[in-house]
Structures are given as structure tokens and as C-alpha cells.
Design a protein that fits this description.
The chain is an alpha/beta fold and 340 residues long. It has a domain at 23-235: 3-Layer(aba) Sandwich (Rossmann fold), CATH 3.40.50.1110. The chain is built from 9 helices and 7 strands, in the order H-H-E-H-E-H-E-E-H-E-H-E-H-E-H-H. The strands form 2 sheets. It has a 5-stranded parallel sheet with strand order 2-1-5-6-7, with helices on both faces.
């Protein structure tokens, strides 16, 4: 019975609460719970956000530093580590201290400088992410694609493209990793960083490019929250369906159990009646004779009936003129006996 009651409560609760299973937060609320990690390209994004009064990325925690790389984070080189509250920290420690729930990472440029290959940088990136999740297992990580470069840059653009492809495939393998393509909006028709978006002819960006980057992030957050809301609503619908099915199953079991108890009770009553007949056997064909004998005995014991006699007969009326009549209005005559 307790299990059935519990299932009913869960079913009602899910039915009542289902309209509220969505993320009720704006993009700015989402950003206030986010941290952005990056190198010198990301440092430019931090400067752009501050210059715009923190309108593009709101109150996000910016953990960026010039020359920051996977190698620097692994060695704990404070000179090249991002700062939180003025204190240089490795990424995994800074995320834990900031309390961020969402982490946007744009890294790889410094690890692809010169003759470095995409595969080596990709392996370092995996170790970097594993270290962050080991200290912060509940965070959701958004891997931003490494930004493209200009022809002649010391960071080969084809290597960047391959590196981004590897990271996109890697993110698809894990439920808490998401790939955000910020490089495509910054490319020209040839696949390089558009000249209008480059500030040094190599890999660093202009304010216009950072505006495109910030808009891409905000658009992605809107799409992400909408997708999460749809997924949660679908999950809630499945839970309601399952709860309803369990409730109906429990009710059917309870009804079946009651029916079984009723049948058992009827069988017990039948057995008790049969046992009683065995103890006091009276053949069915003798029932009428028994009843007839009882009726005859009843008649014999009845008293004889006599006609009813009135115990108080009415007084006979007397003439008013007779002597000694109490109702006479004449004086009563004295009658003396005759004496010869």
C-alpha cells in the first residue's frame, strides 16, 4: 500500500511540476556563472569586454593570460598563468575557486607555434581537460575552436583547422563537452583569418572580430539553453509516462489482490457452511416436514377462542315517573304494605 501511495504522489508531483523543468535564466545569467580561459587571443577578448562595460560577456570570470599554454599550465609557471583575484593559478584551481558552472576554453594557438603538429597539441588538450574535470567534475565545458590565422603566420592555418576538427570529434564523445565554432565567422573565402579581423597580420584580432566572437557566444548560449530545455521537457514527459504506467500497474495489482482476498473469504464461508451441515445433518427433503410439524405444534398450543363479552353493560333506562327513580321529577309516593 505504501508503494502505491508513493507512486501516486510521484505521478502527481511530476504532473504538477512538469511546466517548470526548463532553465529559467537569460544569457547574462548564464554568463555570470561562466569562466573564459584563453591565451593572448583570449586576453584581447577580456580587454574588449571590459572596454564595452562588460556588456558583451557580462560578469563572466575571465581567466586569460598572454603566452598561456598547455605546457605552462602543466609546469605551473606562474608567469604565464591566468590570475584570479590577482593570484596566478592553474586552470583547474582557478575554476574551483571561482565556482564557475560553465567553462569556455579557447586554447591551442601557443601550442601550435612553429613546427608543432595538431596531434601533439590534441593530446595535450585532452590531458588539460581531464585535469580540469578531475578537480571540477560537475562543470560543463565548451571548447571554442582555435581562431584562424593569416597567411605567413608562425601558426599554420591548416594545422589549426586539423586541430579544431580533432577537438570537435573529441567533444562529441562526452556528455559534458560541447564544441563552439567561433573560427568560421572569422574566416574569409579562402579559409584564412579575414584581413579586416586581424590586428597584426598573424593571429591576433581586432575589436570588430571580438564583437563577432562575443555575438557568436551569446547566440550559442541561446541555442544551448533552448536545446537543454527541450531535452529536459522530453525527459520529464518520459518520467511522467513511466510514473503513470507504474501507478496503473500498482492499481491493477491492488485490485487483483482485493479480488483474490474476496474469493478466499467466500471459499472460507462455503467451507464453514459445509462443515456446519456435516455436524447437524438434516436432509433437504425433510425441511417441509419439519416446518409442518412446527406449525401443528403451534396450533395445538393456542388457547381456545371465546366470543368477547362486555364486562360493563350499559344501564337500563327507567321511566321517569316510576317511584324511586333517581331521574324522576315528581315527588316519590310512600307506598305502605297492605295489612288485612
Amino acid at each position: 500500500m505504501k508503494r502505491i501511495l508513493f507512486a501516486l504522489i510521484i505521478y502527481i508531483a511530476l504532473f504538477i511540476c512538469s511546466p517548470r523543468v526548463c532553465l529559467a535564466e537569460t544569457v547574462d545569467d548564464f554568463l555570470s556563472k561562466s569562466a573564459f580561459i584563453g591565451n593572448s587571443v583570449g586576453e584581447g577578448l577580456t580587454m574588449y569586454n571590459n572596454a564595452k562595460g562588460k556588456v558583451p560577456l557580462g560578469d563572466a570570470t575571465m581567466l586569460t593570460r598572454v603566452s598561456y599554454s598547455f605546457y605552462a599550465d602543466e609546469r605551473g609557471a606562474g608567469r604565464y598563468l591566468p590570475k584570479l583575484g590577482g593570484v596566478p593559478m592553474r586552470a583547474k584551481d582557478a575554476i574551483r575557486e571561482s565556482g564557475a558552472e560553465y567553462v569556455f576554453i579557447c586554447m591551442g594557438t601557443n601550442d601550435l607555434v612553429g613546427m608543432s603538429d595538431a596531434e601533439s597539441a590534441f593530446n595535450k588538450y585532452q590531458q588539460y581537460i581531464a585535469g580540469i574535470l578531475a578537480e571540477n567534475p560537475t562543470v560543463t565545458i565548451f571548447i571554442e575552436s582555435c581562431t584562424p590565422t593569416r597567411p605567413g603566420s608562425n601558426v599554420n592555418n591548416d594545422t589549426v583547422t586539423m586541430f579544431n576538427s580533432n577537438m570537435e570529434s573529441y567533444c562529441s564523445l562526452f556528455p559534458n563537452l560541447f564544441y563552439v565554432d567561433i573560427s568560421t565567422p572569422l574566416k574569409d573565402e579562402t579559409g584564412f583569418l579575414a584581413a579586416g579581423y586581424c590586428s597584426d597580420g598573424s593571429c591576433h584580432l581586432t575589436n570588430t572580430a571580438y564583437g563577432v566572437w562575443a555575438d557568436t557566444i551569446r547566440t550559442y548560449i541561446n541555442a544551448y539553453t533552448a536545446a537543454m530545455n527541450a531535452a529536459r521537457a522530453e525527459a520529464a514527459a518520459r518520467e511522467r509516462t513511466l510514473a503513470k504506467a507504474n501507478y496503473e500497474k500498482n492499481m491493477a495489482e491492488m485490485y487483483s489482490k482485493k479480488q483474490k482476498i474476496r474469493e478466499e473469504r467466500k471459499n472460507q464461508e462455503r467451507q464453514a457452511a459445509a462443515a456446519l451441515r456435516e455436524e447437524n445433518p438434516i436432509p433437504f427433503h425433510q425441511y417441509d416436514r419439519v416446518l409442518e410439524g412446527l406449525n401443528l405444534q403451534k396450533k395445538e398450543n393456542q388457547l381456545p377462542q371465546f366470543p368477547q363479552v362486555s364486562l360493563n353493560p350499559p344501564l337500563m333506562k327507567q321511566p321517569l315517573d316510576l317511584p324511586c327513580s333517581p331521574q324522576s321529577s315528581h315527588p316519590t309516593l310512600q307506598v305502605f304494605p297492605y295489612i288485612p
